[in-house]
Amino acid sequence: MAPSKVLAGARVVLPTGIVDDGRVVVEGTRISDTAPPDAETVDVRGHWLVPGFVDLHNHGGGGASFSGTAEDILTAVRTHRLHGTTTLVASTVTDDMDVLARQAGLLSELAEQGDIAGIHFEGPFISPCRKGAHSEKLLRDPEPAEVRKLIDAARGRAKMVTLATELPGGIDSVRLLAEHGVIAAIGHTDATYEQTVEAVDAGATVATHLFNAMPPLGHRTPGPIAALLEDERITVELIDDGTHLHPASLQLAFHHAGAARVAFITDAMDAAGSGDGRYMLGPLEVEVTDGVARLVQGGSIAGSTLTLDRAFRRAVTVDRLPVQDVVAAISANPARLLGVYDRVGSLEPGKDADLVLLDEEFALKGVMRRGAWVVDPQLG
Ligand SMILES: [Zn+2]
Question: What residues does the Amidohydrolase-related domain cover (predicted)?
Fold first, then answer.
């Protein structure tokens, strides 16, 4: 076993507050509360230590996607780990049901091995009016029997399904998902305010990238945004890449929902951690220019090229959100939603030693997952 390590002198962000000149003891794969005498001390003064990031919604990175082969999936996972994401839910995009069922089988094996934290099906049960970068001809209504097929194909590894709950079968599907312990996420939806309230009452608990792919907030048609923001039972996903949301919209959502009800996600596609150029998002072609991904046909925004280290830095330095709140939204809240907060999502003894080292400007300077450095500490 590797010798124990004491990361000492950092500003450590704990659920109870920020500890200046704090320390985190790593023993084997876990965080410990006491350091053995032979522990190696790493001086990380002048840095922040925060929990590893947890991404609920991510389609790929490093030129590879979660719709690809096992090797592609691992490439994408590794890419995001280099950017601090130590727990990641792999998202699919709308495709043929047979293709999705097959992919679910493959992804479930990787979840079994601990490479990913589960599967998020985004589509095909979404609204043609708010399809975003999903193939219209492959969309379908959320018939519970169809939704069931995907959950079964995921062999206990389905974590979340994004659906337009106003479509025929939508409310019954929300109930089905809730019964199976799968998060019903409202998104790519054209629902009214009232329809959204009904879906939340039926058991939906997440808003898929709030604001994006849903009707805007109107003064007499408040739509899903108002219903999702006001309900304590809902966690809202936000994409903080400077492209998907105006900073004022992000602020509005963050302050209205409160730090305990926000999850920062990437919604990343293959180009994240890779570069501009031509990519595929499921069956659709995407052009990435200056880091912004758009469909070749029609120009819809097609996921992001965001990584969570960039989202973290932006949230603190541009949006001016408190570090403690950003840690909640990027680690603790998504971990709680996934039911893994007993293992990850905070820097507490007994949990996996998943952590991110940031410098004073919030640039990533080290990543540890389960006690091993994924990015060696750069302590300039
Ligand atoms: Zn997505």
Answer: 49-374
